[in-house]
User: Fold this.
Amino acid sequence: MGFKTLELAELERDKARARQQRARQEDSGEESGDDLPQTQAREVFEEVEEDDEGEYDDDATMNLLSQQAEDMELSQGEDGDETVAIRWAPITQSFSSQDFMDVEEPDAKKPTLSADQQRAVDIAVSGRHLFFTGVAGAGKSFTLERIIGALRAQGKRVAVTATTGVAATVINGRTVHSWAGVRLGLQDLGFFLTMFNDKQHRNVRRRWLETDVLVIDEVSMLTVKLFEKLEAIGRGMRAGKRGTQLDLFGNRCEFGGIQLIMSGDFAQLPPVGSKRLLFESRVFQDMFPMAPSNCVLLRKSFRQVGDDGLKGVLDEIRLGNVSETGRRLLNECQFTTFGKEEEERCAYLYAFNKDVERRNRERLQELKQKTGGEIVTMASRDVIEDDQPKPFPWPSDAWPQELQVAVDARVMLLYNVDVERKLANGSRGTVVGFVRRGETVAVEMYGPVQRGEDAEKRVGVTVSFDPVEKGESEVVETIFHCPFVVSKVLRPEDEGEKGDEIVTMTGSESGEESEEEREGETLATRYQFPLRLAWAMTIHKAQGQSCPYLEVNLNGCGMNAGQAYTALSRATSAKTMRVKSFHKVIEQVRADPRVINFLRQLERL
Ligand SMILES: Nc1ncnc2c1ncn2[C@@H]1O[C@H](COP(=O)(O)OP(=O)(O)OP(=O)(O)O)[C@@H](O)[C@H]1O
Assistant:
């Protein structure tokens, strides 16, 4: 497909989106800002925001906020050494009507909910906080979509989020960090409450104030510390609005009265950099008491339909205890073979980054031999401040200085470009071509230098992203023309909690920084494509996805049933899954006793 065709397809899609939005606005009697140029429309919107603010007494609110900040200062707790695990910062923090988007009426053809799924929907529409969980493929994301539809039909303003970008794409949401405006969430409560009250952050503030229901998916990866911080921010931000009243059920207004809908499976991946699991949080326990009125366990898996053998072995691994029958099945999976096309679509999962990188390098060389195509090296453009050492000691998690790609190479996106359009950190696709000078202005301005034949002319890379299977089996194809990403090393103004330098990865299509990102002194900046090779990926990147063809290497998953379980449960059937390094690991797989205990309590409800 030529580039012009790609651009046209994109244009058509944007037009269709605009048409849909206009139709929705007309239906709801809302005035459309579409006829205005974009900036003007934004100004109109901001004026409305200013007016809304009149509802609150700003001085009184500020006093309350500072008081609350002192009262609720969060301690570091045992998670004090939390590592910086999420390497991006939101591209834009802007509030959009999409945050509170209407949804279509339920379609009679859509699959019907199981009794447990229906119970979750009923609790959600009753206005109570809801936590629901279930085995991988039990339809947690699917049920969330139904819940969101039902709540919006009640006129509620629902913010849809997940703990990772890829998980957010599945439910048409954004990351909870981005929604909440907290980036990595490293600063203390007072910092956020003060920050959200300056004019620059009015959009974040407005989101906190106007949301009725906050949905968070894949909560097994949410740290106790961040969850409790979000709860305190909610209370702090909304204090001027609702005080510290009790809600309809006589509860203290957690999250300042926002209803919480949380979903995830603690038998899958735990949070990065923290030993505590979310259900150990006192705030979580208060909000979601172990009772049928607040918690639901979905028991049936819909992913491995028709493969009871695989379902059975997954249930065993989940609890860290694999039977002889289960071992035999996994043993047979060592010898699964795929046809040529299936092998191309296969996802290879590893526990370690070094294995992922090795496998991807091998596949790139194989591709070159097979097609005779050229491997293109994208060298980053580095800007290092005068007083900084040269070469600059880039942190190990900075984007690579040299990125190698080729046409037909499988690649993965490295930050959340546009989660609503399914372009999230972890989204996978295939390189379809290179964009040459003159075909796009933005690329010329911000493109990195390339080496290799024809390098002068090659200034961009075009990727066709895989369709994302939504909860209800629709597919959305996205063809994406890569923007560039700025990777910065900053010395923050407030020195952070640890006084260390913080690495901030920021991205924007224009290459310009957004207001919120202009904090601290820039030491060095790297311009690079936000891509990495992705025939192989880490198990973390695969959470929440279904993989029709899968190879799992279990090396490194010992002692961590969550990793083995997450990896193997991406498969839709044992026939389309190849398992490697299984013997050594299966003896060691142990489930976390805290998780087993938590699940047993849920079973008894
Ligand atoms: N009631 C249902 N009827 C038919 N299909 C369903 C139903 N519920 C879920 N599914 C299908 O099952 C598959 C898995 O669902 P989903 O991805 O929501 O599971 P999940 O619990 O979120 O999985 P994971 O824990 O791996 O993220 C999807 O293809 C979904 O469409």
